[in-house]
Design a protein that fits this description.
Blueprint: E1 9-13, H1 18-29, E2 34-37, H2 47-54, E3 57-62, H3 76-97, E4 100-106, H4 129-144, E5 149-154, E6 157-158, H5 165-173, E7 179-182, E8 186-187, E9 190-191, H6 192-207, E10 214-217, E11 224-225, H7 226-236, E12 244-247, H8 280-287, H9 291-296
Helix pairs in contact: 1-6, 2-3, 3-4, 5-7
Length: about 300
């Protein structure tokens, strides 16, 4: 990635999170000057602080978010303050500073009742408070940054730097002989590091004027269920996939409704001259060799 003709640094908010850490790592490897701000460093709902943070930035990658899906059901106002109002503040600061904004959003803004992959222009219709809060943020980006705002929806994220489903499944392998995992929710397991690489590529294309603003779907290609993901993680880790048994969402009732179908289409990437993310299986095969996952497989468990 050549950066010789580009000026201005990159700003990454939510830098302590799983995706934020990966974005900073990719930027470092690419030789791109970047500033990472954690939640303790920057309150994105504070207009003065945000304006100061954005000053001089060419590209802002917003990984800051309220991510407690179930908690949002009883604290929707607080979730919307971060996922909606905070994003509006950030988008306004980017508009004033002439910076491009890459805002990470979610499949949860969609109703989850489709049978074919959702297009980027599909009608939204969140089924829970978290999705509603994220949709407020998406609309703010579209309104304030129609040309320089990039909404990247992702889903089923896992990675090395935070709690996630894959890590949980591997940990439980050492504790339980069998696990019941939901097999009636369909989605695209996405490695956070692979998404980080694509976000940086998109930001560079945006700087070069090659990527139009709008909605992009940052999820792996292909599709599976949570049970399918767990079984593949076990297979790749040398564990018996049959230890994972199918069950239904009704067996794991949670405060927030989960979309039954979170498969997203990827047609938007061609406009930016980029390919969709690879198949979820190939992502998982690469991810599981990383130290954080490999270490879990060294725990006393099936060999």
């Amino acid at each position: 990635m050549s950066t010789e003709t580009r000026s201005g640094h990159w700003l990454v908010t939510g830098a302590a999170g799983m995706l934020g850490q990966d974005v900073l790592a990719v930027l470092k490897d690419a030789g791109i000057e970047a500033v990472g701000l954690r939640r303790a460093d920057l309150d994105i709902t504070d207009p003065d602080a945000v304006r100061a943070a954005v000053d001089g930035a060419a590209v802002v990658v917003n990984c800051a978010a309220w991510t407690d899906v179930d908690g949002a059901e009883t604290a929707e106002e607080a979730a919307t303050a971060v996922n909606g109002t905070g994003v509006r503040v950030l988008a306004g600061a980017c508009a004033a500073a002439g910076a491009r904004l890459l805002h990470v959003s979610t499949d949860y803004v969609l109703p989850g009742d489709a049978s074919e992959p959702y297009r980027e222009d599909a009608e939204t219709g969140p089924v829970n408070a978290y999705g509603r809060s994220k949709l407020v943020g998406e609309r703010a980006v579209a309104e304030l940054l129609p040309r320089d705002g990039y909404v990247v929806r992702t889903a089923w994220l896992y990675g090395e730097h935070g709690p996630n489903f894959v890590a949980t499944m591997l940990k439980l392998a050492a504790q339980r002989d069998t696990l019941d995992v939901v097999d009636d929710q369909h989605g695209q397991p996405t490695w956070s590091y692979a998404l980080a690489r694509r976000l940086v590529e998109l930001g560079l294309a945006a700087q070069d004027g090659k990527a139009p603003g709008g909605v992009y779907h940052g999820t792996a290609s292909g599709r599976t269920t949570w049970m399918g993901l767990a079984r593949e993680a076990y297979r790749l880790g040398g564990l018996d996939p049959e230890r994972i048994r199918p069950t239904t969402s009704e067996a794991f009732v949670r405060p927030a409704v989960r979309p039954a179908f979170s498969v997203l289409g990827h047609d938007g990437w061609s406009a930016a001259g980029l390919e969709p993310l690879p198949d979820w299986r190939s992502q998982l095969a690469e991810a599981i060799t990383r130290p954080a996952f490999a270490d879990l497989l060294r725990l006393p468990s099936e060999r």
